Amino acid sequence: MKIRFATLEDVPVFVDMGRKFHSLTRFGVYDYNAERVAQQLSAAIETGQNRNGTHCFFVAEDSQGQPVGGLIGCMEQHFFSEQMVASVIHYDVLPEKRMGGAGLRLLMAFRKWAENRGAVELNAGVNSGTDLDKMDRFLRKLGFKQTGGNYSLALAAQSSSISSKTIPTTSILTEKINA
Fold it and tell me: Which end is more exposed in the chain, N or C (fewer Cβ atoms within 10 Å of the end residue's Cβ)?
């Protein structure tokens, strides 16, 4: 298993892989815009990784040199501090290649990248809605501590099954929102 930085030549492969990852998660209800994904991946590589050094995009390759997973991460200052933290933006391995070490090696490469840039903390959120217990066990084994949770709320534009009565509001809150 080899871990390397992504290049622009990887973009088409990851657009295709992204379609598969997308369909396997709770995000499958969203449209998949391959052109937008290609633009975002290209920007992560060209601007974030190569020009600014604020992002990284690691690729895991199998023994035949085929990409089997990737991790996109970034460095940023906390909103309330000048200290740098590293955050996982996207992280996935093809289902048929999981449990083969790619996921661990991607995270270890990201950790080293973050440490080399002075990060004081590494953050990984899990919002796929799939394999939550497995990811929890995996991250805890690596020393991560749970510090919160991810929550989502489908809005009327996304789901007609949720009405405005779902969330109680006060007239003050409604007035501020409508102002």
Answer: C
